[in-house]
Fold:
Amino acid sequence: MTTSASVPTQQPHSLAVYFDHNATTPVHPEILNELPQVAQYFGNPSSIHWSSREPKRLIREARNKVAKALRANPLEIIFTSGASESNSTVFASFYALIKNQTRNEIITTKIEHPSVLRACENLLSQGITVHYISVNDSGNFDWDHFNKVLGPKTALVSVMLANNETGLILPVSEIAKATHIAGAWMHSDCVQAIGKMPIDLQDLEIDFASFSAHKIYALKGCGVLYVRKSSPLFPLIYGGGQERSRRGGTENTLAIWALGKSLEYESQYLAQYQEIQKIRDYFETQVCLKISDVSINHKNAPRLPHTSSLLINGIDGETMLMSLDLKGYAVSTGAACSSGNPEPSHVLLAMGLDRSKAQTSLRISFGIGNTVTEVDQFLIELQQSVARLRKIMNESFVEKNSVKEDLNFNL
Ligand code: PLP
Structure:
């Protein structure tokens, strides 16, 4: 599969290299090929006449494929509009469940995706206690704090399987075990992990899990909420009884089909990401050799194979991103939904970095189709951009100081 072939058409540059796979991925070429044909099945899957038969079949097959890839039961799979909705559903549902109970506390981490953190803020404003566990710059989950707050009052623990900014993999299976011993429910945002590391929901022992189709070479506007059999769930969206009354709204047949189709390639993805890890590791070795004062976040912790989160001392990440964009490289400073936000990444701040350091971050997330040649070219551009930006900064520093000296002299 060469996904990079689908990127250049949108790009004004002759060179278009996509290194931002944690933001979204190109659509798998087989999905693109079959899309027009599948789009012809316009029927509403809930109708009872002929037009619904094919859409119904497509959704049923997709559900089976998703369940197989995750080692779940098809009845445990709920299709949603994306992982933000899946996450929001879990928190809204728990609010309804626990608001009048004595077991009514929630535990999460400080490095979750905003769709989890904002949902927790909302619960806090409704009087629910939320404990935020830290993850430090070495990638260690603060077990002491977790064990202290986990107890008979805990209703839900929500910890992501892998972080979208640094790629850190969290010890979700161990956290789930402790959570269940304490009698609470466990949710995990598994968005960034799927296709990059094997996910076995039976082994992980989690009760709720969120996934997003567009992070795995399928279409946007589609996600999954896994709800383990016998776990409680109140719908976020009410409707005509779709998804066994757990998520209302006419199904996005095309995107659901595409997700199922993409997951047919799950084992291929896992093998391809082992190769991508070699490209990522090569990049990290070279970048540290070629550019001074670079460090890599969570470098020695268990990490996803394709993500590299750099700190380039003294260089504003947003400025670097724009400089690289002009050369045709798509990278990011952190989460895609925070782009254009001058605030430094909440993940890096939570790891204990100060604001000025956190502002120097650059996230490179490799994917299928990326090559060592692209990395070599990118390293040259990065080196040149760093040299140019550091020179500009030095000149403006010297200029500022000479103005200061002039002022002192004139006083
Ligand atoms: N969770 C994580 C870890 C993510 O990286 C993202 C997307 O960036 C989401 C949730 C939200 O997914 P979606 O775009 O499907 O709403």
In short: Residues 3-9 have pLDDT under 50 and may be disordered. The radius of gyration is 23 Å. Residues 82-84, 113, 115, 160, 164, 189, 191-192, 212, 223, 335-336 surround pyridoxal-5'-phosphate (CB under 6 Å). The CA atoms of residues 104 and 403 lie 60 Å apart.
